[in-house]
Amino acid sequence: MPIDTSLLDHFAIVLVHPKFPENIGAAARIAWNMGITRLIVVRETMPDHETMAKMATHKAAHLIENLEIHAHLKDALATFNIVVGTTARRGRQRILEKTPRDVVEELMPQIASNQIAFIFGPENCGLTNDELKYCQMTSAIPTADFSSLNLAQAVAIHCYELHYGLIHAQKDMKPVPQYASSFELEGMYTHIEDALLRINFLQEKSHVYWMNNIRQFLGRIHLSSKETNIIRGICRQFLWHQSSVTEKSSKEGNTT
């Protein structure tokens, strides 16, 4: 079945705080080999251009020229509807990992209507829990006893699975609607957090735990922009009502 290469434009590779410019260049070369044209780096400063370009080779040099640099992961992900985190570490607060092939298979019906980011952590430690909170899915590459892979190797495996998945995608696959962007979701989570803090639902010791669970629950639902706005509207009205009640009680207390 011929590949609709335009679908690959819906994907981006996001490298979070990579330490070595060589790995950025190698990731660019791999992405271009598999038809992916968007590479984003989350880093305070621009990595050494010459070193990146040398590893990318002249065929993928344009990815280095058009490299997107963001200081913060939140800003880098703002326009994406689906975020997939790659990790080899497991933890009780982490989303259940799937293999890259399983992740791509699940993504197939969602590609046409959504922008999708695959994020990769630093070479020495991978993504943190705070970075993984932006993800709706996580991918872990099955290995033998030694689970550590080079950053460029991990990018290569995921890019290959994306390319492979598009080749073998079902013709009768039913597309899904566009989901809310990461920017819209983060705004919604801020309002939810403010509302839950107002009623003392979020305690100091369990604050992160409950917010992570709420993120995972709502992330599985795949909310639309309209639905996130409804939830934000409810939270805003709740916060306004609470403020009004508090102000009224304060005034009544001062008059007695």
Keywords:
256 residues; alpha/beta; Alpha/beta knot; Helicase, Ruva Protein, domain 3; 7-stranded parallel β-sheet; elongated
What are the SSEs and their pairings?
Elements (H helix, E strand, L loop, with lengths): L10 E6 L4 H13 L5 E4 L6 H8 L4 H5 L2 E3 L2 H4 L5 E5 L10 E2 L1 H8 L8 E5 L8 H4 L4 E3 L11 H17 L14 H17 L8 H15 L3 H31 L1
Parallel strand pairs: 1-2, 1-6, 2-3, 4-6, 4-7, 5-7
Helix pairs in contact: 1-2, 1-7, 5-7, 8-10
Q: What is shown here, in short?
A:
By secondary structure, this protein is of the alpha/beta class.
Strand line-up in the sheet with most strands:
3-2-1-6-4-7-5
CATH structural fold name of the largest domain: Alpha/beta knot
Shape: elongated
Beta-strand residue fraction: 5-15%
Low-confidence stretches: none
Mean pLDDT: 88
Tally the helices: 10
Q: How many β strands by DSSP?
A: 7
Output the structural class: alpha/beta
Class of the largest domain, according to the CATH hierarchy? Alpha Beta
Helix content: 40-55%
How many domain modules? 2
Distance from first to last alpha carbon = 79 Å
Task: Give the biggest sheet.
Answer: 7 strands, parallel
Radius of gyration: 21 Å
Order of helices and strands: EHEHHEHEEHEHEHHHH
Would you identify the CATH architecture of the largest domain? 3-Layer(aba) Sandwich
